[in-house]
Specification:
Length: 103
């Protein structure tokens, strides 16, 4: 159910292309990942206030795909219990990745 919703969210965003990130399903824009699926969560590359808001949600945390205490500071893992926020965060993540590609 969670992964199906992840796919629905990604496919609903114009310009998003499916791919893989660390062997996990993800969505990319301009060849760069902005969201992925991991452990019943959707993970987003975010910055600023949107990053703080995502991280403040219950059970959200920085993404640590290796599980070795080396989280990826821009990536926030948002649990399925907050799935109603996934599309909003995915859109913000895509905008953020697009903005960093232009630098």
């Amino acid at each position: 159910m969670e992964e199906e919703l992840f796919n629905e969210v990604g496919k609903s965003i114009d310009g998003a292309a499916p791919g893989n990130l660390f062997g996990k399903p993800c969505f990319k824009v301009e060849g760069k990942a902005f969201a992925c699926y991991f452990e019943q969560c959707m993970v987003f590359k975010l910055s600023g206030e949107t990053h703080r808001k995502a991280l403040s949600l219950k059970d959200s945390k920085l993404f640590d795909p290796s599980k070795k205490g080396r989280p990826m500071k821009e990536w926030v893992q948002v649990h399925y219990q907050h799935h109603q926020e996934w599309l909003k965060f995915a859109m913000e993540a895509m905008k953020y990745v697009q903005s960093t590609n232009k630098k």
